[in-house]
Amino acid sequence: MQPPEDLPEVLTVQEAAAFLRIGRDAVYAAVRKGELPAIRIGRYVRFNRDRLRAFAGSLEREGPPGALTRPGGQARAATTSGPTSGNDNQQESRGGR
Questions:
Q1: Are 11 and 52 in contact (CB under 8 A)?
Q2: pTM, full prediction
Q3: CA angle 86, 88, 92 (to 5 degrees)
């Protein structure tokens, strides 16, 4: 991957995916959800290099859109659904931790 300053001013989906180190499908999904700033030209999707860099920088500071946060702004990992112990419900009814 080229250093960001060597990238063209306007990036393709493949170049944006490589820059963000995510898959092409994830880029298209983020564009559809409005999470990723994109330029639409007909059926083509392009990205401004500087806006993409600013977007990536904002993720480092704030976390990804929809991320779960604790009071005080600290991000926490999302839990997966599945079997849990009865203790989880007890903590919730007491206000959790």
A1: yes
A2: 0.58
A3: 125
Query: How many other CB atoms are there within 10 angstroms of residue 46's CB atom?
Result: 16
Token output for 8:
């063209």
Residue 44, strand partner residues: 41
The tens digit of pLDDT for each residue in 26-80 reads 999 999 999 999 999 999 999 999 999 998 888 877 765 555 444 455 544 444 4
Cβ neighbours of 52 (radius 10 Å): 21
Question: Got the DSSP string for 65-92?
Answer: TT--B-TTS-B-PPPPPS---THHHHHH
Tokens encoding 23: 């898959």
Q: How many CB atoms lie within 10 A of CB 38?
A: 21
Residue 15: Cβ within 10 Å count:
19
